[in-house]
């Protein structure tokens, strides 16, 4: 039984904490957050907010593992790198109600929420979010810091570049590549390759504009 420190006490952090609690392997779960209004509050009734992100170094000997629960893809990966450098173990959190193939490869700092499916030989990069009810079919390759929102679906052999966001209910058909730093808007259906740093939307999806490279 271990102790888990979660960075990020917002809505996503709550869901991550519930996922961790459902695993039954942590005796203690606590949060760090830079919003001073939540310091010393208790999340989910049992998970206190004990400091800010800058305090992470002072807790490394008290918590065996740390997890980053931020929606910003680049910030999430950057903090994972920092936490590893100062000595934390970074787990994967896979909800018991998710299905993950034994042949799938899931890298550190990834959370797979309830109802999600990750099928045969899929690869999820560091710091991925496979959110509630999302699905990743066979042989997909997701880069670092990719977020699949609730209900997003990837067909077989899809590749997704680093830091890309597939929004709620979006679909990407088989054998399509979605580039780095791009966004597929909610409800979009992507039927052809998408370049880097692009926002695509509608059915079938088409390019609307460049994305914010800082996202």
Could you characterize what this model shows?
InterPro entries: AcTrfase_PglD-like, PglD_N, Trans_hexapeptide_repeat, Trimer_LpxA-like_sf. Keywords: Acyltransferase, Transferase. Residues 3-82 form the PglD N-terminal domain. It is globular and about 50 Å long. The protein folds into 2 domains: 2-91, 3-Layer(aba) Sandwich (Rossmann fold); 94-206, Hexapeptide repeat proteins (UDP N-Acetylglucosamine Acyltransferase, domain 1). With 215 residues, it is mainly β. It is 12% helix and 31% strand.
Roughly how many Å is the radius of gyration? 17 Å
Principal-axes geometry comes out as globular
Q: Low-confidence parts, pLDDT < 50 over ≥5 residues?
A: none
Q: Give me the secondary-structure category.
A: mainly beta
Strand content: 25-35%
Helix fraction, binned, reads 10-25%
Q: Identify the CATH homologous superfamily of the largest domain.
A: Hexapeptide repeat proteins
Span of the ends, CA to CA: 35 Å
Sheet with the most strands: spatial strand order: 6-9-12-15-18-21-23-24
| Assigned CATH class of the largest domain | Mainly Beta
Q: Main sheet, how many strands, which sense, barrel?
A: 8 strands, mixed
Organism: Desulfosporosinus youngiae DSM 17734
GO molecular function: acyltransferase activity
Keywords: Acyltransferase, Transferase
Pfam family, one: PglD_N
